[in-house]
Amino acid sequence: MGRTEVCQLIIKLVGGQDNINKVWHCMTRLRFDLIDDSKVEWQKIKQLPGVLGAQNQSDQVQIIIGPQVNAWYQDIVDNMSPEENAPSTTAAAIKPKARKSLISLFMDTVSGVFGPIVPAIAGAGMIKGLLAGLIALKIISAKSDTVMIIDLIASGVFYFLPFFLAVSAAKIFKTNEYLAAAVAACLMYPTLIDAAKALATHTPGAVNVIYFMDIVPVSVFNYSASVIPVIFSILALSYIHRWVDKIMPDVLKTVFTPTLTLFITALVSLTLIGPAGIYLGKLLALGIQGLFDISSVFAGFIVGAIRPIAILTGMHHAMTPIALQNFTDKGFDMLMPMMFMANMAIAGSTFAIYFHVKTRQEKTVVLSAAVSGLLGITEPALFGVLTKYKKAFIATTISSSIASAFIAFFGVRLYGYILSSIFSLPAYIGPYFIYILMGVTLSLGLSFILTYLLVVRTEKRLVAVESQ
């Protein structure tokens, strides 16, 4: 059975197109927002070729595919009519979707917005990390033209991150992507950014607020690399656009709907949403910083413990805005090294399972999942291997906690967003390099040893029986 046929079956097994309110994907999962979750045929979905697992988490139906998820998503979309994200009124009338909790809405938004753009920020982050390593090793001069060119390639994505987020958020909130980019452009316009830089450098004459019509204050902030302000601005855009389009006469819609929508949204974003988003982002970062203020080791232990279960439940994207906010505010982040430790613990446990399974097919699946874990893609290992061995998952969590607490004790930090992969090591070259190497060794080694010892023969037999 080919991928296209499997995707056709997935549409059918989630209740058909009329039951799909919205579909999107992150780096490894297809995510569905359905009208009626009771129509999902879970067991049949899990048995489909290429499907690593399926679950209902945060009011999302998540189907775990792996690194090839984008191709699967395209097949899903291609096998649906042009209105793929708009369920029929008949289906909606039969059983309306229950109102989601704020946490579920937040998780839907974060995973939906960040999932598609992760390749761009991960690729740019990898280049940034390699550049930092080359400079630290004095292979190239920090003041050379080569470094300047490589830096602009790597840093462009992060500087103009609001544009990427705006387009991605527009798809999630079902509004015009070009109007969304226009709103991001307002936040990123040089007049505002230059005023913020002048304020930051205490330039004479710098102001912290400018006024619209001498009445409405517009706070001066540098929104480059910001996350929360633009996401909430595009959410507002979706409502404003629908409201303006509804009240505008048909003969005027072509010209005046986008005009009025852009003007109102931009003004609301600059005066209310943008500043509130900046402060909210700082508040989230301060919340995590509070853990570090208690004890960096304690913070590492907690973050390391929750990371594997967060990936399992699809909630791991919630840490991304906090990490990006840390890079913006402090120039470094200590969360992402802990995510690195969690990924290595997952890989180490999976490698241990390789020595427990017997058949060539099982060994191939486990080895592939373990290597993917080393490369930063952990869902195949978690869903395809570790969830079948409860003690292996416990060993992973313990190892992730200990390794994260270890590197936190030495203050290991990262200076740019990068995928948590074994190939990320060059990004750490510098004063913390020896500690991150020790952390990786500890995480891989401890998880391997604990899993190998804890997964006893009786548990293996149980899994073998369940798989038949």
TrEMBL record:
PROSITE patterns: PTS_EIIB_TYPE_1 (PS51098), PTS_EIIB_TYPE_1_CYS (PS01035), PTS_EIIC_TYPE_1 (PS51103)
Residues of the PTS EIIB type-1 domain: 4-86
Stretch forming the signal peptide: none
A GO CC annotation given for this chain: plasma membrane
Pfam families assigned to the protein according to its UniProt record, in alphabetical order: PTS_EIIB (PF00367), PTS_EIIC (PF02378)
TM ranges: 105-127, 147-167, 220-240, 260-280, 292-313, 334-355, 393-412, 432-455
Gene Ontology process terms (BP): phosphoenolpyruvate-dependent sugar phosphotransferase system; trehalose transport
GO molecular function, one term: protein-phosphocysteine-trehalose phosphotransferase system transporter activity
Keywords, in A-Z order: Cell membrane, Kinase, Membrane, Phosphotransferase system, Sugar transport, Transferase, Transmembrane, Transmembrane helix, Transport
Residues in PTS EIIC type-1 domain copies: 108-468
Localization in the cell: Cell membrane
Membrane topology: Multi-pass membrane protein
Active site, renumbered: C26 (phosphocysteine intermediate)
Protein name, entry field: PTS sugar transporter
Species assigned in the record: Yersinia intermedia
